[in-house]
Write a structure and sequence with these properties.
Blueprint: H1 3-12, E1 21-25, E2 31-35, E3 40-42, E4 50-54, H2 56-63, H3 69-74, E5 78-82, H4 84-95
Parallel strand pairs: 1-4
Antiparallel strand pairs: 1-2, 2-3, 4-5
């Protein structure tokens, strides 16, 4: 899946935390902003309540079920900056992407 396809799928599935801005930072691949304030998913960078940093390949492994999110976090492959509770809420939201 490309990043643009991911943005489209996230938008279609309302993959955001209501009232919060969560940025997914993929390093060289750029960012995806899950804007629960404006209820939209974009590739725009900006301030966020929570930033999740993960390599694109690790994200793909997580999306394919080959890498558990908690394992990625515990091994430093996934880092969370800001409000950790938003990242925890997002876990349930992102589960909808695989359904």
């Amino acid at each position: 899946m490309t990043k643009q396809e991911l943005v489209t799928k996230m938008q279609e599935n309302n993959a955001w935390v209501d009232g919060k801005k969560v940025k997914m930072d993929f390093g060289d691949k750029g960012v995806i902003m899950l804007n629960g304030v404006d209820k939209q998913v974009t590739e725009d960078d900006g301030d966020a309540d929570t930033t999740i940093k993960v390599d694109w390949n690790d994200w793909q492994a997580m999306a394919d079920g080959q890498l558990d999110g908690m394992t990625a976090f515990m091994t430093g492959k996934l880092k969370v900056e800001g409000d950790m509770s938003n990242a925890m809420q997002l876990q349930g939201v992102l589960a909808k992407l695989n359904s």
